[in-house]
Design goal:
Blueprint lengths: L2 H9 L19 E5 L6 H17 L3 E5 L6 H9 L6 E5 L1 H10 L10 E17 L7 H8 L7 E5 L5 H13 L3 E5 L3 H9 L5 E5 L2 H8 L3 E6 L26 E9 L4 H14 L3 H9 L10 H20 L6
Length: about 325
């Protein structure tokens, strides 16, 4: 199911109304937003956008900690090992909480050990290519990568078992293309190698920084994996507009999660605070710099429903993918 449609339905169930101010000084302990990747990525941009408002709303010091490695599982494990008092949150996407345990059994945790506090936004994915690759559309890329006897086209991802890896392998399986997975430790090195012509392709979000590189002719964008064109890239066709691959719709969500054993009172306090923070003009302005828009504020019940649905959907998609490099 396309994520935008899912959000539209659950938006109608979301809690509404103005939230009352939270009491100040409820905790002397700092609250830590754990980001599972180096600075500069989607999770990091989100964490730094909500940090000032969260600190103001809670009356509590809020720290952003970047802990990269093992497709986000190091950060996820840190959050699970922390005291379940609501003072350690993971700024999460499906990569860390759903896919990392499937790709790396040594992580020894499951998606069910987390509870979603807030879903902030969902962003569509797109297919990008190096400028020197002689293709200008999804169809021409598929045609090139199907030719017998040609080299496999290397495509980069942020790691084995990442959402980009699963979607890339799904693309390869559906199209019968000759692709070679090249995992990276983060988006920065991946993009540098795409600009430097070291890899041919990548699947990443429709994001302002990447679209800027497209405008500067450092990389190319071939198509967006949504039913309708993205407002951020209205001149870029969808996969559906081509002839060779229909119904290829994929997005990536970002939210905050805590250990499932976190007390209900702490969960409600965080949910209430974050609901206030995402409505602050300065928070919205900070996230828009990264090219995203906050979605509706969900109730805890609807956040749990969304999280469970995504867990099941992504597991189904990953089932047919060989999650190894």
């Amino acid at each position: 199911m396309e994520r935008r449609q899912a959000l539209t339905r659950i938006a109608g169930l979301a809690a509404s109304g103005t939230l009352p101010p939270l009491a100040r000084g409820q905790s002397e302990k700092a609250l830590t937003l754990v980001v599972p990747y180096p600075p500069g990525g989607g999770s990091d941009i989100l964490a730094r956008a909500i940090q000032p408002g969260l600190q103001k709303t809670l009356g509590q010091t809020v720290i952003v900690e970047n802990l990269a490695g093992a497709n986000g599982s190091l950060a996820a494990r840190k959050v699970l090992n922390a005291a379940p008092d609501g003072n350690t949150l993971l700024v999460a996407s499906p990569n860390e909480v759903v896919l990392a345990p499937l790709a790396m059994p040594g992580t020894r945790y499951t998606a069910e050990e987390f509870r979603m506090i807030n879903l902030f936004y969902v962003t569509p994915l797109a297919l990008y290519a190096r400028t020197g690759l002689t293709v200008d559309s999804v169809d021409s890329l598929i045609a090139l990568a199907r030719i017998d006897g040609t080299r496999e086209l290397p495509y980069g991802t942020t790691g084995v078992g990442s959402m980009y890896h699963v979607v890339g392998e799904n693309f390869r399986a559906l199209t019968g293309t000759r692709l070679l997975h090249v995992p990276y430790k983060g988006g920065g090195p991946l993009i540098q190698d795409l600009i430097g012509q070291q890899i041919d392709l990548t699947i990443l979000p429709v994001a302002a920084n990447l679209l800027g590189m497209v405008d500067a002719r450092q990389i190319k964008i071939l198509g967006v994996a949504t039913p309708q064109r993205s407002p951020m890239a209205p001149n870029v066709p969808t996969f559906d507009e081509g002839k060779l691959l229909k119904g290829f719709h994929h997005s990536l969500w970002f939210g905050t999660v805590v250990p499932a054993k976190t007390p209900e009172g702490a969960v409600r306090r965080l949910h209430q605070a974050l609901a206030q923070v995402v409505q602050m003009p300065e928070t919205r302005a900070a996230i828009q710099v990264g090219g995203a828009e906050f979605g509706p504020v969900l109730s805890l019940t609807d956040a749990a429903r969304f999280y469970a649905s995504e867990n099941a959907r992504i597991r189904r998609m990953a089932k047919g993918v060989k999650l190894e490099s």
